[in-house]
Amino acid sequence: MSEINRAVKGTGDILPADSYKWQFVESKMLETARLYGFKEIRVPVFEHTEVFLRSVGDTTDVVQKEMYTFDDKGGRSVTLRPEFTAGVIRCAIEKGLVNGALPVKTAYIGGCYRYEKPQAGRLREFHQFGVECIGASAPAADAEVIALARQVLSNIGIEKISLEINSIGCPECRKDYVAALKDYFKNNIDDLCDTCKDRLERNPMRILDCKSPVCSAIAAKAPVVTDYLCDDCREHFEAVKRHLTAAGIGFTVNPHIVRGLDYYTRTVFEFVSGDIGAQSTVCGGGRYDGLIFQMGGPSVPSLGFAMGIERIMLLLEAQGTVLPSVRDCDLYIAAMGDAAQLKATEICSALRTDGFKAQTDICGRGLKAQMKYADKINAAFSAVIGGSELETGKIRIKNMKTGEETEAGLDGVPDTLMSLIRSDALGDLEDAVLGK
Fold it and tell me: Which of 12, 190, 298, 305 is the most buried (most CB within 10 A)?
């Protein structure tokens, strides 16, 4: 197969047979977010490169190795978004949301782009759902955002998921921690990768997030940030834990979580699963109280999370979760002859206006081929129109599952079909109750 007929490495296609799964998951995500007051926001797929340099951090893997950055035709450096938070905050500053009624609660779904080694659950083009809560400083906000993430996962059918939390403190209490990290890593500098050697002076906390097995092993024995929290950060973290407990949310404190982006402060968290191999984190987030000020806005505390939809789909498959499908075709009308085809077109048009999913032949097939097609698309009901049906003004609607046929007038198809669909749905419900 020629390259032109292959997807670019690190990208994937979502086929029509699978799109209903994505639609279900995405709709549940936004629906659950609305329960907490979060409304959808849509931001551009690319931003000025400086937006990500100032927010994500120039010592992170994302900025150093993974961003798709290029000059546009005007000579401006732009970058395909590697994550959503920076773009949402840029929008909130530009449009004045940070100066209005707070908190501002936003949710998003869309594609992100990172140049990294493709593997299961980690593509170069991937999709995220997430939220940003702008203008909330209380520990209750941390717990609410975590609760939302957990409910999203639960509502789409994710089981056996665990929550890990940590506090990485504020810029003030991190000074002593950073000093301790420098002392520790200097004693191991000869074994660090070249990237981490560069990070040692600029941002040693990034070493904790290095993917190198050697650096990870060294980082595992490094000082932990929770030993260096100031009184305010420690009390905030304890209050977050109390709120999670009050909400009935179990958690484990993992002092090694730092997250991979520089803007995080205080609370950070991850939902992890053991069912999808190395890519165990399906949702991550935390607080970023200094980001809006850092990007040129007022000092407004904020927090959020993001979850990778590809990983969600892998996890649903690994756990054997069956997602509800939708009926693709309520009625397929096969036609014999030009006059019958015109009548089929007329009836389909009326059915679609009434909200039914109706199809008829558009390929010039014979009757046998049309009925085979109706079976392949899983039409719930089918009907045939020929000369005799046109003459009598009557049509027989066949239940494709049971074979039962019901007569209807050509002008009364919508009403008859509605009655049949209701009856069929009640039958399915009865079978489900009886375990058939």
Answer: 305
- Output phi, psi for 57, to 5 deg: 110, 130
Cα separation of 262 and 424, whole Å? Answer: 55
Residue type, 209: D
- DSSP, residue by residue, 97-120: GGGSSS-EEEEEEEEEE--S--BT
353: in domain: yes
CATH no. for residue 117? Answer: 3.30.930.10
What residue type is 44 in one-letter code?
P
First CA to last CA across the chain, in angstroms? 45
As for how many domains the chain has, the answer is: 2
**pLDDT tens digits, residue range 127-139?**
999 999 999 999 9
- Boundaries of domain holding 53: 3-170+230-318
Beta bridge partners of 87: none
- Indicate which CATH number applies to the domain containing 362: 3.40.50.800
pLDDT in tens, 372-386: 999 999 999 999 999
Measure the CA–CA gap between 138 and 302, rounded to whole angstroms.
10
For residue 107, list its beta bridge partners. Answer: 40, 131
Check residue 64 and report its DSSP letter: I
What pLDDT digit, counting tens, does each position of 192-204 carry? 888 888 888 888 8
| Geometric angle at alpha carbon 203, from 43 and 61, rounded to 5° | 45
Q: Which helix (H) or strand (E) holds 185?
A: helix 171-186
Three-class secondary structure assignment of 201-222: HHCHHHHHHCCCHHHHHHHCCC
Strand ranges in 115-242 using DSSP code E only, listed in sequence order = 125-134, 162-167
Nearest-angstrom CA–CA distance, 144 and 137? 12
For the stretch 316-319, contacts whose Cβ atoms lie closer than 8 Å and that sit 24 or more positions apart, written own/partner, are 316/21, 316/25, 316/156, 316/157, 316/158, 318/275, 318/276, 319/157, 319/158, 319/159, 319/160, 319/275
CA distances from 49 to 110, 112, 183, 293 (A): 19, 14, 33, 18
Write the CB contacts of 27 (distance below 8 Å, at least 6 apart in sequence): none
Q: Are 410 and 394 in contact (CB under 8 A)?
A: yes
Distance between CA atoms of 236 and 211, rounded to whole angstroms? 30
- 59, two tokens: 């010592």
Stretch 148-170: mean pLDDT: 94
Question: Does 428 have pLDDT greater than 80?
Answer: no
Which residues have C-beta within 8 Å of that of residue 321, sequence separation ≥ 6? 157, 158, 159
